[in-house]
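Title: Prediction job returns without error message
Component: structure pipeline
Severity: low
Priority: P3
Assignee: unassigned

Description:
Job completed but the reporter wants confirmation the result is attached to the right record. Sequence as submitted:
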Amino acid sequence: MIDEDAALHRLLDEGSTLAFPMTAYGPHPDQVFETCAPQVDDLHAHGSDAPRTRTLVVVHGGYFRPAIDRTHARPMAQALVQAGWHVVLTEYRRVPGDPSTTTDDLTALDTHLRETGHDVAAWVGHSAGGALVMWRALHQHLPPTRALALAPVADFGAAVADRLGSNAVRDWIGADPHQSPDLYARLDPTRLLAVNPAAAQRISILHGGEDATVPLRQTLGWVRTVLDGAHHFDVIDPASPHWPSVLAALTQR
């Protein structure tokens, strides 16, 4: 955990110095996104035929806790822009006991992006954000999209049983699986996959082999790429030796 804590603090420090234009997609202060667009010179560096001018929607993690916002994900967003992507770094409401506010926000964001002409290539999420982009890709009533889940909380039942993140999943949903089976059926990627298995082909997963925050067992049963030696924040850290694997995953499918 020492390496993970140090990496998080560094990403927070770096993210606090970055600023991108902000757009509201709803009336609440957390219903906003930051737009990070490549410069013309960056696009030329990748060639005129590069597909990376499309939009990536980045959803930050933080175990659904209200105190953890998008700041630590800004270095990742900047690095994706430098690789030629147009990035939407989203914020969303994280209300303990009311998970529908989160999914309502992502649905509203999805609608806003489509109505404003964004050509979304993929939703990219880390940790709890990984669970949310998997939810988006598995949703049967939204337009199909691709998702890249980085160290995702993919099995809510196991997360509750293991009390991951100091019982973060239970706190966010507001109940155990046996108390609110309908909520878990609507939110848990593992349960959603059972209902819509064909959508699994739209999801790519990268997970660090040394992840201490979201253990590797969370993605058992999913097709995934395990990054040997990587910890929880290596998959969003542009300074990590594993960062090229993230960039490669965005262009492989």
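Comment from assignee: result matches the submitted record. The two ends are 32 Å apart (CA to CA).
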